[in-house]
């Protein structure tokens, strides 16, 4: 089943109005959800929307709160999300980091007390639209064991690196687990195995079965001990810079809220050799794409490249949706 983009946005806006998010904020929030699905990140678009509404209903998201600056240190600012909607808070903070970068070449906003930011690639796109490199990450509730451990002590702490490119940004958007929980839930609904090992089953064996991994909450860190170490480092940096909660502290709360996030923008327009930098990026990507995939025999793609074609197709034909989830939105 496919749904046209404008219809999806309109339904999101309608439901948001019912739950107290109105005006430009509702329009932006709806667009961020729909854009995720439009570009093929279905787990954090439509599929995530009912969970967002549930977080409003359980009180973890304060619909009228928005992030505010609490401390300023020149190119770095601390902001307090006041438990507002995570996607709106993230948009505000990424825009502010870009504004600081236009003043200082580098801008950093560290955010505390916020909620799940939905699809972080949206904010990487925003940085690239202003000719900035974007580096941003968040911590989460404990949902991943450290390598060698059996208890979830780390967050899967997604990281985005976005680099402007004339033919479409390089957009790396990855969790520190082999698969995000949203992706595991998608595979489970579809009744398919993960393409590679995703985590551990109840017997402690590596498994590609999403249902078994979701049951144990023992997801596999990317790169084993390297992913676990990177998760810990991202968590500590975000919590330290923002003065907010670490994953350990978030895990003691009744629900996942009061997260810590970091937004860094680097203004490439500040550099006098900007055109040379563009040529270097283009040459590097061209060299990468000259490689041939071992299995498919097609050209290698850089991160984010495929989104442009997915976006074009979904605008023309409509966005593929899970019928059950779409029905729940229509009935909300």
From TrEMBL:
Determine the domain of life of the protein's source. Bacteria
Question: Which EC class does it fall in?
Answer: oxidoreductase
One family from Pfam that matches here is: Ldh_2
Gene3D superfamilies of this UniProt entry?
1.10.1530.10, Hypothetical oxidoreductase yiak, domain 2
Q: Which UniProt keywords apply?
A: Oxidoreductase
Q: Which InterPro entries match?
A: Mal/L-sulf/L-lact_DH-like_ah (IPR043144), Mal/L-sulf/L-lact_DH-like_NADP (IPR043143), Mal/L-sulfo/L-lacto_DH-like_sf (IPR036111), Malate/L-lactate_DH-like (IPR003767)
Q: Which residues cross the membrane?
A: none
GO: which molecular function terms? 3-dehydro-L-gulonate 2-dehydrogenase activity
The enzyme's E.C. designation: 1.1.1.130
Look up keyword Thylakoid and say if it applies: no
> What is the protein named?
3-dehydro-L-gulonate 2-dehydrogenase
Native organism: Sphaerochaeta associata
